[in-house]
Amino acid sequence: MTQELLILLPICFITGAINAAIGGGGLIGIPAFYNVLTTFSPAQIMGVDKLSSVMGHGMSIRQYARNMNLPWRLMLPTAVTAFAGAYIGVRMLNLMPTEWMRPIIIAVLAIMLVYTWFKPQMGHVDASRTPTRSDLAKGAALGLALGFYDGFIGPGTGSFLLFLFVRFFHFDFLRATACAKVVNFGTNAATLVFLIPAGMVDYSLALPLGVAAICGSVVGSRLAMRGGNQWIRRLFLILAVSLLCKLVWETVRPWLG
After folding, report:
1. This prediction's pTM
2. Which residues cross the membrane (predicted)?
3. What burial letters (b/e) apply to 113-142, b meaning 16+ CB within 10 Å?
């Protein structure tokens, strides 16, 4: 596995930085895992990816929490329901095809992009408040739905979290990015609850790749805090466009023969 590690360590450093700064590192990491770990099953690849991601997200949460006040009263229940949703999603992987959800995700992502593009001031100023019972209920519902999506399909969870935190809780992009890491930690941990007992995690790969993700997350979180809201907004739009193109291509490719 030495050769595979030499290839994947810098990739996990980069994906860790991207995940910490904006989310969506899986758009780079997952294809790299499939190209390099050709003898691994999809479940084993997910095991390596999720354990290294959990380690990276844990460090990015620490970095953000040291430098800003996070709304833990809202985020912890949201992370708990996200954990539950992700566990349900990963258990349903073999029960129904994921393809039927892709057109819905494409439509939602396109609407999200257009909305953000035509509201340039959205997420520029943090207008968050002490969470109400209604906010807690919204957070729990969003956590459950996006946790299920992360466990069942996966790519783009960070983008959806970022948008919804800005839209529904009036966070600025920086605070929304930090809070998304808390929820992402919960969803990734939930998939590991299923994958670890099934023996699907190769620790000789996942742990060193997790260390690379930790190092990347330190860099990514610092860049995000230094770059501010406008910088994160631009990265968010780039990432969302990339994800939309990926999903559209995966949808039309079978029709092209």
Report:
1. 0.85
2. 70-88, 100-118, 139-169, 189-219, 231-249
3. beebeeeeebbeebebeebeeebeebbbeb
8 Å CB contact between 126 and 170: yes
Q: Would you give the DSSP letter of residue 242?
A: H
- pLDDT of residue 217 exceeding 90, the answer is yes
Q: Where does residue 38 fall: left (phi above 0), alpha (psi -120 to 50 degrees), or beta otherwise? A: alpha
102 by Cβ neighbours in 10 Å (0-12 / 13-18 / 19+) ranks as: middle
Q: What is the pLDDT of residues 29-66, one digit of tens each?
A: 888 898 889 888 888 888 899 999 999 999 999 999 99
How many C-beta neighbours within 10 Å does residue 39 have?
6
103 vs 191, more confident: 191
DSSP 8-class letter at 99: G
Structural tokens at position 140: 């729990």
What type of residue is 208? P
Q: Are 33 and 233 in contact (CB under 8 A)?
A: no
pLDDT at 34: 86
Q: Record the tokens describing residue 68, joined without a space.
A: 């800003």
Q: pLDDT-derived band of residue 140, with 50, 70 and 90 as boundaries?
A: very high
| Single-letter residue type at 181 | K
What b/e readout covers 70-85, taking b as 16+ CB neighbours within 10 angstroms? bbeebbebbbbbbbbb
